[in-house]
Here is the input.
Amino acid sequence: MNDIMSLGLHRIWKEEFINMIELEKEYYLLDLATGSGDLLELIKKKCDCMCIGYDSNIEMIKQAKKKLKKNNVFYINGRAELMPFKRNKFDLVTVSFGLRNFSDIDQSLKEIKRIIKKGGKFYCLEFSEINNRSLRTLFNLYSKIIPFYGKIFLNNKEAYSYLIQSIKEFPNQMLLTKKLLKVGFKNIEVIDILDGVASIHICEL
Ligand SMILES: C[S@@+](CC[C@H](N)C(=O)[O-])C[C@H]1O[C@@H](n2cnc3c(N)ncnc32)[C@H](O)[C@@H]1O
Here is the structure.
Protein backbone atom coordinates (compact mmCIF):
# COMPACT_ATOMS: atom_id res chain seq x y z
CA MET A 1 0.00 0.00 0.00
CA ASN A 2 2.87 2.39 0.78
CA ASP A 3 4.19 1.83 -2.74
CA ILE A 4 0.79 2.44 -4.31
CA MET A 5 -0.05 5.51 -2.24
CA SER A 6 3.31 7.23 -2.49
CA LEU A 7 3.88 6.09 -6.11
CA GLY A 8 7.02 4.37 -4.83
CA LEU A 9 8.42 7.60 -3.42
CA HIS A 10 8.57 6.36 0.19
CA ARG A 11 11.47 4.09 -0.80
CA ILE A 12 13.49 7.00 -2.18
CA TRP A 13 12.68 9.11 0.92
CA LYS A 14 13.81 6.32 3.25
CA GLU A 15 17.07 5.92 1.33
CA GLU A 16 17.63 9.68 1.51
CA PHE A 17 16.91 9.51 5.24
CA ILE A 18 19.37 6.66 5.86
CA ASN A 19 22.06 8.45 3.85
CA MET A 20 21.89 11.30 6.35
CA ILE A 21 22.59 9.01 9.30
CA GLU A 22 26.17 8.77 10.49
CA LEU A 23 26.55 5.08 11.32
CA GLU A 24 29.42 3.37 13.15
CA LYS A 25 29.85 -0.37 13.68
CA GLU A 26 30.02 0.00 17.47
CA TYR A 27 26.78 2.00 17.70
CA TYR A 28 23.58 0.84 19.42
CA LEU A 29 20.60 1.82 17.26
CA LEU A 30 16.90 1.63 18.04
CA ASP A 31 14.45 1.78 15.13
CA LEU A 32 11.23 2.87 16.76
CA ALA A 33 7.91 1.92 15.13
CA THR A 34 9.97 -0.33 12.91
CA GLY A 35 6.92 -1.77 11.15
CA SER A 36 7.96 -4.33 8.55
CA GLY A 37 11.62 -3.30 8.94
CA ASP A 38 12.18 -1.12 5.84
CA LEU A 39 14.64 1.15 7.64
CA LEU A 40 16.50 -1.66 9.36
CA GLU A 41 17.03 -3.34 6.01
CA LEU A 42 18.63 -0.18 4.61
CA ILE A 43 20.65 0.44 7.78
CA LYS A 44 22.05 -3.09 7.80
CA LYS A 45 23.11 -2.74 4.15
CA LYS A 46 25.14 0.30 5.14
CA CYS A 47 26.59 -0.76 8.47
CA ASP A 48 26.51 -3.84 10.70
CA CYS A 49 25.84 -2.00 13.95
CA MET A 50 23.78 -3.42 16.81
CA CYS A 51 20.10 -2.82 15.90
CA ILE A 52 16.85 -3.23 17.77
CA GLY A 53 13.51 -3.01 15.97
CA TYR A 54 10.73 -1.86 18.29
CA ASP A 55 7.00 -1.77 17.54
CA SER A 56 3.69 -1.94 19.41
CA ASN A 57 2.25 -4.34 16.83
CA ILE A 58 3.54 -7.90 17.06
CA GLU A 59 2.26 -8.73 13.56
CA MET A 60 4.48 -5.99 12.10
CA ILE A 61 7.47 -7.36 14.00
CA LYS A 62 6.77 -10.80 12.49
CA GLN A 63 6.93 -9.20 9.01
CA ALA A 64 10.23 -7.49 9.86
CA LYS A 65 11.68 -10.78 11.15
CA LYS A 66 10.75 -12.50 7.88
CA LYS A 67 12.31 -9.74 5.79
CA LEU A 68 15.51 -9.56 7.84
CA LYS A 69 16.03 -13.20 8.74
CA LYS A 70 19.68 -13.21 7.72
CA ASN A 71 20.52 -10.04 9.59
CA ASN A 72 21.47 -9.88 13.21
CA VAL A 73 18.58 -7.74 14.49
CA PHE A 74 16.74 -7.96 17.82
CA TYR A 75 13.07 -7.12 18.18
CA ILE A 76 11.00 -5.87 21.07
CA ASN A 77 7.26 -5.47 21.17
CA GLY A 78 6.18 -2.39 23.11
CA ARG A 79 4.86 1.15 23.04
CA ALA A 80 6.95 4.26 22.42
CA GLU A 81 5.34 5.99 25.36
CA LEU A 82 6.99 3.62 27.87
CA MET A 83 10.08 1.78 26.74
CA PRO A 84 11.85 -0.99 28.65
CA PHE A 85 15.35 0.47 28.27
CA LYS A 86 17.76 2.05 30.75
CA ARG A 87 18.55 5.73 30.30
CA ASN A 88 21.51 6.67 28.05
CA LYS A 89 21.41 3.35 26.21
CA PHE A 90 21.40 4.21 22.49
CA ASP A 91 23.73 6.18 20.21
CA LEU A 92 20.94 6.59 17.66
CA VAL A 93 17.17 6.39 17.60
CA THR A 94 15.38 6.44 14.24
CA VAL A 95 11.69 6.63 13.44
CA SER A 96 10.11 6.83 10.02
CA PHE A 97 6.39 7.47 9.55
CA GLY A 98 5.82 6.39 13.14
CA LEU A 99 5.69 9.44 15.40
CA ARG A 100 2.40 10.60 13.87
CA ASN A 101 0.75 7.37 15.04
CA PHE A 102 1.79 7.53 18.68
CA SER A 103 -1.09 8.25 21.00
CA ASP A 104 1.07 10.53 23.18
CA ILE A 105 3.74 12.24 21.07
CA ASP A 106 5.12 14.41 23.91
CA GLN A 107 5.54 11.44 26.24
CA SER A 108 7.18 9.41 23.44
CA LEU A 109 9.66 12.23 22.78
CA LYS A 110 10.53 12.32 26.50
CA GLU A 111 11.15 8.57 26.39
CA ILE A 112 13.29 8.88 23.25
CA LYS A 113 15.38 11.57 24.95
CA ARG A 114 15.74 9.45 28.10
CA ILE A 115 17.18 6.41 26.28
CA ILE A 116 19.65 8.31 24.05
CA LYS A 117 23.24 8.76 25.26
CA LYS A 118 24.70 12.24 25.72
CA GLY A 119 26.04 13.17 22.26
CA GLY A 120 23.66 10.71 20.59
CA LYS A 121 21.16 11.62 17.88
CA PHE A 122 17.49 11.25 17.06
CA TYR A 123 16.43 11.05 13.39
CA CYS A 124 12.76 11.42 12.48
CA LEU A 125 11.14 11.12 9.03
CA GLU A 126 7.48 12.06 8.94
CA PHE A 127 4.80 13.65 6.77
CA SER A 128 4.81 17.40 7.19
CA GLU A 129 3.39 20.67 5.89
CA ILE A 130 3.81 21.51 2.21
CA ASN A 131 5.23 25.01 1.78
CA ASN A 132 3.91 25.75 -1.71
CA ARG A 133 0.18 26.54 -1.84
CA SER A 134 -0.49 24.97 -5.27
CA LEU A 135 1.33 21.77 -4.32
CA ARG A 136 -0.61 21.73 -1.03
CA THR A 137 -3.92 21.97 -2.94
CA LEU A 138 -2.81 19.18 -5.28
CA PHE A 139 -1.83 16.98 -2.31
CA ASN A 140 -5.17 17.68 -0.61
CA LEU A 141 -6.98 16.54 -3.75
CA TYR A 142 -4.81 13.42 -3.99
CA SER A 143 -5.48 12.71 -0.28
CA LYS A 144 -9.18 12.37 -1.02
CA ILE A 145 -8.46 9.41 -3.33
CA ILE A 146 -6.28 7.49 -0.86
CA PRO A 147 -9.11 6.02 1.28
CA PHE A 148 -10.59 4.59 -1.95
CA TYR A 149 -7.24 2.90 -2.70
CA GLY A 150 -7.56 1.38 0.79
CA LYS A 151 -11.03 0.14 -0.08
CA ILE A 152 -9.97 -1.34 -3.45
CA PHE A 153 -6.69 -2.99 -2.42
CA LEU A 154 -7.30 -3.95 1.23
CA ASN A 155 -11.03 -3.55 1.68
CA ASN A 156 -10.22 -1.06 4.44
CA LYS A 157 -11.27 2.50 3.69
CA GLU A 158 -11.24 3.58 7.37
CA ALA A 159 -7.53 2.87 7.96
CA TYR A 160 -6.63 5.15 5.09
CA SER A 161 -9.08 7.86 6.09
CA TYR A 162 -7.26 7.74 9.44
CA LEU A 163 -3.92 8.06 7.65
CA ILE A 164 -4.99 11.27 5.93
CA GLN A 165 -6.50 12.67 9.13
CA SER A 166 -3.31 11.88 11.08
CA ILE A 167 -1.20 13.72 8.48
CA LYS A 168 -3.47 16.78 8.78
CA GLU A 169 -3.31 16.75 12.57
CA PHE A 170 0.43 16.13 12.93
CA PRO A 171 2.54 19.15 14.01
CA ASN A 172 4.24 20.92 11.10
CA GLN A 173 8.04 21.36 10.83
CA MET A 174 8.11 24.35 13.21
CA LEU A 175 5.78 22.89 15.85
CA LEU A 176 7.64 19.58 15.90
CA THR A 177 10.93 21.47 16.29
CA LYS A 178 9.42 23.30 19.29
CA LYS A 179 8.37 20.00 20.87
CA LEU A 180 11.86 18.57 20.35
CA LEU A 181 13.47 21.64 21.92
CA LYS A 182 11.05 21.45 24.84
CA VAL A 183 12.13 17.91 25.76
CA GLY A 184 15.80 18.95 25.59
CA PHE A 185 17.12 18.18 22.11
CA LYS A 186 19.47 20.76 20.54
CA ASN A 187 21.05 21.67 17.18
CA ILE A 188 17.89 20.62 15.37
CA GLU A 189 18.20 20.43 11.61
CA VAL A 190 15.07 20.25 9.44
CA ILE A 191 15.23 19.02 5.86
CA ASP A 192 12.12 19.18 3.69
CA ILE A 193 11.42 16.48 1.13
CA LEU A 194 9.31 17.43 -1.90
CA ASP A 195 8.82 20.92 -0.49
CA GLY A 196 7.47 19.60 2.82
CA VAL A 197 5.33 16.60 1.82
CA ALA A 198 7.63 14.93 4.34
CA SER A 199 10.43 16.28 6.47
CA ILE A 200 13.44 14.98 8.34
CA HIS A 201 14.32 16.28 11.81
CA ILE A 202 17.85 15.54 13.01
CA CYS A 203 18.43 16.33 16.69
CA GLU A 204 21.31 16.04 19.12
CA LEU A 205 21.45 15.48 22.84
C1 LIG B 1 3.27 3.60 9.09
S1 LIG B 1 4.08 2.35 10.02
C2 LIG B 1 5.79 2.79 9.72
C3 LIG B 1 6.67 1.60 9.71
C4 LIG B 1 8.14 1.83 9.29
N1 LIG B 1 8.85 2.67 10.22
C5 LIG B 1 8.23 2.39 7.89
O1 LIG B 1 8.66 3.53 7.72
O2 LIG B 1 7.86 1.68 6.95
C6 LIG B 1 3.80 2.88 11.68
C7 LIG B 1 4.22 1.88 12.74
O3 LIG B 1 4.08 2.49 14.02
C8 LIG B 1 3.71 1.50 14.95
N2 LIG B 1 3.16 2.16 16.14
C9 LIG B 1 1.99 2.82 16.25
N3 LIG B 1 1.84 3.31 17.50
C10 LIG B 1 2.95 2.95 18.20
C11 LIG B 1 3.38 3.16 19.53
N4 LIG B 1 2.64 3.86 20.39
N5 LIG B 1 4.58 2.65 19.91
C12 LIG B 1 5.33 1.94 19.02
N6 LIG B 1 4.97 1.70 17.74
C13 LIG B 1 3.79 2.20 17.33
C14 LIG B 1 2.69 0.67 14.17
O4 LIG B 1 2.49 -0.60 14.73
C15 LIG B 1 3.34 0.62 12.77
O5 LIG B 1 4.14 -0.53 12.61
